[in-house]
Amino acid sequence: MKDPNDALARRARFAEVVRDDPVDLAEACLLMGAEVDPSLDPGPGLAELDRLATAVAAKLTVPAEDTEPTRAAAVLALVLGARAGFGGAQADYADLRSSLLHEVLRRRRGLPILLSVVWTEVGRRVGLPVHGIALPGHFVVGIGDPDGDFVLADPFHGGRLLTVDDARKIAAGAGGSPNDPHLLAPAQPIAVLLRILNNIRAWAQNPAQAPERAWTRLWAVELSLLLPRHPAALRRERGSLLVQTGDFLGGAAELDDFADLVGAIDRELAATVRREASEARARLN
Known about the structure:
Elements lengths: L3 H14 L7 H12 L5 H18 L9 H15 L17 H7 L4 H15 L3 E4 L6 E5 L5 E5 L5 E3 L1 H10 L15 H16 L9 H13 L6 H12 L3 H15 L4 H16 L3
Antiparallel strand pairs: 1-2, 2-3, 3-4
Helix pairs in contact: 1-2, 3-4, 3-6, 8-9, 9-10, 10-11, 10-12, 11-12
């Protein structure tokens, strides 16, 4: 049986980490994994990133700050891609483990965004300027100065180098704007965490999945709500999920709170949500 006090402590730690400056992206991702495995200790995952960073540092022939972006990308691809075996395939999109950092570190497989987290966190430990890039429909890394000399690499494909034109084609293929001036801007940690949690929510609401996946979707929503910036609509989603998982009063209260929040700007939406709250309470009778 899960200890509710431990769960509260984990959530409190997650809320603390995501409000730190800078955000420890690796620890925040590992704390997501504790929602699935309450016994999970982030320590071994952080130690594995340290070990990988040591292996990368050993391959650098000059100090990290003097390493050219192309050379840095080649070393990261060698150590993380070719030797450690980090990469992904289409089948990984159907596996929740691909969105959990501790499982990605164990299995060496994951979604593009989690593999990019591995690259950025290893790079940070070594002192290499590696940052995530949130392309529409894909996630890659940039290595070097975002405003100057840099290269693009795709951790999902073992660190394959990409050109700017490649990135624009990926964006266009996913329905994004290839000419967006912010297309290659470094992704901020909170945006990365929200995107990971959005992926988990999308996985859990797949109609092909079993109904009990609502619990996974619920914790993903609740962690999203702990982020300093998040969509207000998540409050409504949390209320609906509480109702779906049997907490009718808690869900109704959350739905009412959301209705109060949006009532001044969208009366019709507020009225709809209040009806949902009333229906949830009626299920107790």
